[in-house]
Write a structure and sequence with these properties.
This protein is of the alpha/beta class. It is built from 18 helices and 11 strands. The radius of gyration is 28 Å and the shape is flat. The two termini are 36 Å apart.
Length: 474
Amino acid sequence: MFRLEKIFQQDDHFYINIAIFLKSFLVFLLIYIFSILEFNSIFDLLNYNIYKTSKYFVLSLYFPIFYLLFSFIFRVTKKRYVIHLLSFLLNDLVPLLTVILFTLYVFFILKINFKIDINSSYLLILTICILFIFRKILDSLYANLMNNNIIQRNIMLVGTVESIEKILKEKKDKINIYKCCLIKSDNKNTLEKARMHLKIPVFTDKSEVRIILEYHELGQIWILDNKDKNLVNYFLALVVKFSVDIIIVSLKGNLKNNSKLITDNLINNKYTYSNYQTSQFYGLSLLIKLFLDKIFSILFLFLISPIFVVVTICIYIEDGFPIFFSEESSGWDGRRFNVHKFRIYKKNISSKKLTDDKEFLRIGKIIRNLRINEIPQFFNILKGDMSIVGPRPHILKDDLAYAQVYKHFLKRNKTFPGLTGWAQVNGYRGKKPTNELMQKRMEYDLWYMNNWSNGLDVYIILKTFFAIFRRPKR
């Protein structure tokens, strides 16, 4: 589960920016190859001296950099990637021609001797052709991601039957998938009317929202505002405690007095909306986090592989298989997954006896005291269920129990659960804490999620090594 839909959840800036960097590198590569092959064979492509002494050497260093800069300057401000010939002309050719004119001007001012001949024209034509082909590849890749529901947003519409019907009648925006809707229903007639007019599953305010969100794997809730503030507030109170992103869509006019007002990127840029409650984890920063998770997990597993093997052998010798046990926990958006750990108890032990020291394996006590029973969770990270840094996962029944006590508890599930976290390095760790300590843990987790950065993740990882040897707060 790579969570590509989360990287693209808010916008396509990540994809657009990566495309610009790749095209700039492609321009450099074309000039480099052309400088070699102009008077030499393909076998000389790795001959740096030929490239360095060619007339294209200075151009190859200068041209791609300015193409990159002008691509960002001329980039269309739309937040979604556009597959259109006009987009190619504006985003690829205009920067290219601008750099050519700018280069000629700079070379003239600096009196740099650059002879323009037929080969230079061939290079320009080749560059345009290659950029066009590469743009088609990018378009095809984006269309494939969209058509296979890899980057789309699974949405629940919330509002009146009329407002939901209005959204459903709009021209289809492929990025949005309306999985279901929720209405306020006081009688059977309203529900029957909704099911007759709307062509998606209809639920009422009496339904179990958490189960709906989990079953449909929803990532966003859209509350449709048709100027009935009391109804909007009613729906907000109904869904605000859950972990999915919540946005308020204005169907009539602008949402005023809101610094988070956004005026595009929604249903073909037709409606304004406000991010009432959205995750900070998306885009390039999230991709970097995913990449670091995989790199650190592979590195840690390699470094601790001797410990892993020794513990596995000891558990097997003392009590046979299984070596691991799993607990069902809540992940991002409340989606369930199994957390893996080393087994530290004897086989066939009921959950009521887990606090009895007699039921521990002898090696199990050592594993628990050294805090290495969590090592198998690196496989959860590699699989994509967890991250190295994030709110610690709880078993599902504990999550639901704490959600009854703390209104905002399930908001901890607006990102990956983690092997370590901000609460843990500040001393709030361990099983079955008091309600007061659990509230502090929740507050630290929510602070982390509101202030997250990859730099903060690295800091927490480094601090974890010191926190391991400190006693948790009781």
